[in-house]
């Protein structure tokens, strides 16, 4: 992330006194702090900034491990989300979190340590299952890691487990905490990539592609397994040339043999997000495509456009390396077959395919 833009901290009463709250406050000593009752946290932030510059510390009462919200109509990978925080200090115009959460601010859960204990019990009680766990679905995994230092204690916990992997997904270059850790086993560091045009125009506050890939190269040279996510793919003028530039950069910086998986997904969102994007990002190009309403009620590109995007990326990625764990996120059997040349048939098939990748890479 370009700058850590936290300008204020709000602490819910229940969160004060937690070790993580004290540690976080020590790392950002000059930022104004306000302590509030729980109910006050529902106050609306300014409509334009969504409270992204306010760090809200609270004790989370829900489940810390949740299945990724897939839908029955499309093939889902069976990923599990470790819910460390919600919302994100970065500001991608297409981000679904703009409409997903009904509460503002960048929320961080200071009872995470206790929550993770429960999560690890679940993992340890099913040694025959493979848990693919990630923190980067409801927030960026590393954007506030310099303040929270989640990586300090999550890496050792997951490194010890033989039936789980932890994926940290980011658009930043905040890798210092990872590199300082001595744990590498069963940790995947992933970067979301897009075309240079989409990156520069739509991924506000994220670092450039070059910086992401320099960080990825450094992680790879220091022994981390990597993942990449081309999601959301967005057709735009000269998109083939633009995505080719990203693939050329990927080739320049990364050894494909150290990649566990590369996902491809295209822009999709609930209809309620559209007016929010228009209001918050009036100059965006992400709404310029030819959309339909999918079987899950989400707006997505017309099927031939999705297949052209995936086929193009697949052909080029396979030329680069024939076995990089390519998969589609939330697509149908028929789109898989026509754009990837094979299909896992259903969600169980995709789970098995990705679980096998875990075993091949980590044993
Ligand atoms: S990095 Fe991810 S979570 Fe953060 S704003 Fe962008 S799309 Fe949303």
Describe the protein in words.
The protein is of the alpha/beta class and 363 residues long. The protein has a single domain, classed as pyruvate-formate lyase- activating enzyme (Alpha-Beta Horseshoe). The longest helix has 18 residues, at 303-320. An 8-stranded mixed sheet has the order 4-5-9-10-11-13-14-18. The protein has a 5-stranded mixed sheet with strand order 2-1-3-8-6, with no helix packed on it. Strands 15-17-16 form a 3-stranded antiparallel sheet. Helix content is 36%, strand content 21%. It contains 13 helices and 18 strands. 43% of the residues are buried. The mean pLDDT is 94. Helix 8 packs parallel to helix 9 (239-253), helix 9 packs parallel to helix 11 and helix 11 (303-320) crosses helix 12 (333-340). Iron/sulfur cluster (SF4) is lined by residues 88, 90-92, 95, 97, 139-140, 171.
**Alpha plus pi helix count:** 13
The CATH architecture would be Alpha-Beta Horseshoe
Strand neighbour order, sheet with most strands:
4-5-9-10-11-13-14-18
Overall helicity: 25-40%
Question: What's the N-to-C terminus distance?
Answer: 33 Å
Largest sheet: 8 strands, mixed
Mean pLDDT: 94
CATH class label: Alpha Beta
Would you count the extended β strands for me?
Answer: 18
- Unreliable residue runs: none
Instruction: Indicate the overall shape.
Output: globular
- Might you state the CATH topology name? pyruvate-formate lyase- activating enzyme
Which strand-content bin applies to the residues?
Answer: 15-25%
Radius of gyration, CA atoms, in whole angstroms: 20 Å
């Amino acid at each position: 992330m370009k700058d850590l833009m936290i300008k204020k901290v709000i602490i819910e009463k229940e969160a004060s006194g937690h070790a993580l709250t004290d540690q976080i406050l020590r790392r950002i000593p000059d930022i104004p702090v306000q302590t509030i009752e729980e109910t006050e946290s529902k106050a609306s932030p300014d409509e334009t900034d969504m409270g992204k510059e306010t760090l809200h510390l609270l004790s989370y009462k829900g489940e810390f491990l949740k299945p990724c919200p897939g839908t029955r109509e499309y093939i889902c990978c069976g990923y599990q989300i470790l819910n460390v925080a919600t919302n994100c200090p970065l500001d991608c115009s297409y981000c679904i979190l703009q409409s997903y959460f009904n509460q503002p601010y960048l929320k961080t859960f200071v009872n995470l340590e206790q929550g993770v204990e429960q999560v690890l019990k679940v993992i340890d009680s099913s040694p025959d299952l493979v848990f693919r766990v990630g923190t980067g679905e409801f927030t960026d995994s590393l954007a506030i890691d310099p303040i929270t230092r989640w990586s300090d204690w999550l890496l050792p916990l997951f490194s010890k487990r033989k039936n789980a992997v932890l994926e940290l997904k980011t658009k930043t270059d905040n890798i210092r905490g990872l590199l300082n850790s001595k744990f590498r086993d069963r940790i995947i560091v992933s970067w979301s990539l897009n075309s240079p045009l989409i990156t520069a125009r739509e991924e506000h506050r994220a670092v450039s592609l070059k910086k992401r890939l320099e960080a990825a190269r450094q992680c790879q040279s220091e022994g981390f397994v990597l993942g990449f996510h081309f999601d959301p793919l967005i057709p735009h003028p000269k998109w083939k040339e633009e995505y080719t530039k990203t693939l050329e950069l990927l080739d320049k910086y990364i050894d494909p043999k150290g990649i566990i998986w590369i996902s491809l997904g295209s822009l999709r969102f609930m209809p309620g997000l559209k007016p929010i994007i228009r209001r918050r990002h009036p100059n965006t190009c992400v709404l310029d495509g030819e959309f339909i309403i999918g079987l899950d009620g989400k707006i997505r590109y017309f099927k031939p456009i999705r297949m052209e995007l995936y086929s193009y990326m697949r052909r080029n990625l396979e030329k680069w390396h024939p076995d990089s764990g390519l998969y589609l996120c939330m697509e149908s059997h028929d789109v898989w077959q026509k754009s990837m040349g094979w299909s896992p048939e259903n969600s169980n098939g995709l789970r098995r395919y990705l679980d096998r990748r875990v075993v091949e890479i980590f044993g």
